[in-house]
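RECORD TYPE: inverse folding
INPUT: structure tokens
STRUCTURE:
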């Protein structure tokens, strides 16, 4: 059965999400629709990008992921869909899909330009229902992508997802604070491997004027309760955490904060 996921900043108080699902089911009645999240902060492209990049690798082959965090709706920004190794990503071209697409491996990029197969466009400010949801349904139905739009060369990226490897370490950014207060950086296993860093190392960390010495461990319980640590957790990104505590409250910093990390 075809699987389509949805991620939006719409919330669930209003009927917006249901309307997108309705347009999908009119095209593809047997679709399985999975909600990744509808609690993304309003207009928070980077937050939506984080949750997409974290979740898309865990779905079956040929899943279609529709994302709508779209402060530029109604403007000249493009609607796009991206063919990756194992999935499709559909939504606005504003950086929302770049981390997920590059995590999966980009194969082709298309602009949503042709409306012959799409439903009537009712509103200029509800592309989730009128364009992106139906496009996702068409792709899940295995419609030729060339009937939806032409192939293009590139898409918008989010600069904060690109750490900088230096001669002695890495300059990174806090990209997310989760519900436990863990502060997620844009450092992945790939970055750590390129730096030659192994687990059970120790990092010198500079963040918001603070200088810390933190262990890089496999699990939270590797340090005593209440102690700070760094770990690559379930999402595949390195985090600052406190064993059974809250690193965000402890350090008093959050999303967007710059971090310099030097392995010892």
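DESIGNED SEQUENCE:
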């Amino acid at each position: 059965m075809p699987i389509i996921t949805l991620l939006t900043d719409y919330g669930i108080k209003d009927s917006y999400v249901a309307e997108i699902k309705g347009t999908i089911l009119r095209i593809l009645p047997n679709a399985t629709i999975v909600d990744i999240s509808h609690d993304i902060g309003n207009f928070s492209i980077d937050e939506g990008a984080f949750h997409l990049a974290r979740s898309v690798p865990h779905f079956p082959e040929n899943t279609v992921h529709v994302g709508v965090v779209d402060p530029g709706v109604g403007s000249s920004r493009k609607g796009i869909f991206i063919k990756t190794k194992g999935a499709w990503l559909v939504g606005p071209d504003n950086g929302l899909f770049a981390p997920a697409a590059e995590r999966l491996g980009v194969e082709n990029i298309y602009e949503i330009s042709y409306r012959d197969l799409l439903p009537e466009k009712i509103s200029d400010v509800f592309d989730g229902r009128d364009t992106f949801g139906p496009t996702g349904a068409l792709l899940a139905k295995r419609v030729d992508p060339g009937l939806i739009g032409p192939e293009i060369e590139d898409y918008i990226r989010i600069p904060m997802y690109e750490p900088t490897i230096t001669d002695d370490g890495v300059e990174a950014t806090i990209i997310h604070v989760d519900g436990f207060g863990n502060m997620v950086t844009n450092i992945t296993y790939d970055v750590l491997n390129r730096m030659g860093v192994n687990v059970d190392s120790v990092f010198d960390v500079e963040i918001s004027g603070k200088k810390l010495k933190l262990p890089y461990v496999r699990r939270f319980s590797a340090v005593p309760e209440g102690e700070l640590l760094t770990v690559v957790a379930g999402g595949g990104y390195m985090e600052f955490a406190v064993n059974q505590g809250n690193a965000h409250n402890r350090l008093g910093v959050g999303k967007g904060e710059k971090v310099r990390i030097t392995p010892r």
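NOTES: The chain has a mean pLDDT of 96.
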